[in-house]
């Protein structure tokens, strides 16, 4: 049996967290030879998210040094590397990503000997209204820009559903603070010549209030892509 960390980055996700945890396909993962543990990195939630996670028996790490998804994920990756786990899957606990797709990402990673596998929303099945029109167009533009800059194919740059082998996390150097973190992970993987695979996933309507903006976050993501194209290591 191999050991898997399922990482749920959360900020005020009290409505969706339990739903997502209940949907994790425990039996299927065990049949594939995976033991798993769940960790939550909590970004200063004020709605009781951390307590719900603890009541579910989940290890909770409180985010330090400021708000932002990128800050939380970088801290969570550090916690992960202190373990002996073989792989990590991350997805948002807001109900948009379907945990029943986790086995597909892991199977792709094993079957094709990929270092990293993403879940592609843009090639999968989306519920009506799950992604607004502006975000849909913006995701395509940012994805095209990423492929043009790095010459490394990906169909959904901004997805929050990723699977990593241990050595992939160890090799990434990141300094993102907010929602540009996925773009920087892609940039770091490209610079390190990692093999990136992808599988189509289901994408559902969000449970709770959305946090991602549109134009401001899109500009921030593009800036990160552009800067990291010319600097293999992040600039502080």
Biggest pleated sheet: 7 strands, mixed
CATH topology: Spore Coat Polysaccharide Biosynthesis Protein SpsA, Chain A
Q: Treating each run of at least 4 consecutive H or I residues as one helix, how many helices? A: 9
- Give the strand line-up of the largest sheet: 3-2-1-4-6-5-7
Report helical residue fraction. 25-40%
- SS class: alpha/beta
Describe this structure in words.
With 236 residues, the chain is an alpha/beta fold. It has nine helices and seven strands, in the order βααβαβαβαβαβααβα. A seven-stranded mixed β-sheet has the order 3-2-1-4-6-5-7, with helices on both faces. The mean pLDDT is 95.
Write the layout of secondary structure elements.
Elements: E1 2-10, H1 17-22, H2 26-31, E2 34-42, H3 49-55, E3 59-62, H4 69-81, E4 87-90, H5 102-111, E5 116-126, H6 133-150, E6 162-165, H7 166-171, H8 181-191, E7 196-203, H9 215-230
Parallel strand pairs: 1-2, 1-4, 2-3, 5-7
Antiparallel strand pairs: 4-6, 5-6
Helix pairs in contact: 6-9, 8-9
Question: What attributes characterize this protein structure?
Answer:
7-stranded mixed beta sheet, alpha/beta, globular, Spore Coat Polysaccharide Biosynthesis Protein SpsA, Chain A, 236 residues
Quick summary of this structure?
It contains nine helices and seven strands.
């Amino acid at each position: 049996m191999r050991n898997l960390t399922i990482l749920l980055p959360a900020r005020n996700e009290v409505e969706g967290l339990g739903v997502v945890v209940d949907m994790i396909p425990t039996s299927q993962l065990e049949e594939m030879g995976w033991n798993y543990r769940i960790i939550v990195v909590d970004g200063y939630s004020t709605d009781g998210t951390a307590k719900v996670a603890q009541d579910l028996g989940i290890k909770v790490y409180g985010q330090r040094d400021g708000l932002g998804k990128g800050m939380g994920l970088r801290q969570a990756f550090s916690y992960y590397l202190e373990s002996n786990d073989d792989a990590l899957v991350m997805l948002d606990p807001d109900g948009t990503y379907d945990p029943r797709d986790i086995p597909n990402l892991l199977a792709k990673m094993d079957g094709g000997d990929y270092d990293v596998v993403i879940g592609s929303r843009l090639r999968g099945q989306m519920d009506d209204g799950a992604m607004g029109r502006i975000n849909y167009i913006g995701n395509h533009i940012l994805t095209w820009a990423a492929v043009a800059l790095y010459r490394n194919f990906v169909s959904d740059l901004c997805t929050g559903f990723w699977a990593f082998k241990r050595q992939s996390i160890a090799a990434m150097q990141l300094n993102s603070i907010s929602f540009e973190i996925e773009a920087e992970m892609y940039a770091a993987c490209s610079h390190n010549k990692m093999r990136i695979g992808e599988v189509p996933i289901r994408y559902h309507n969000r449970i709770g209030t959305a946090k991602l903006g549109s134009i401001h976050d899109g500009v921030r993501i593009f800036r990160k892509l552009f800067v990291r194209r010319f600097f293999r290591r992040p600039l502080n």
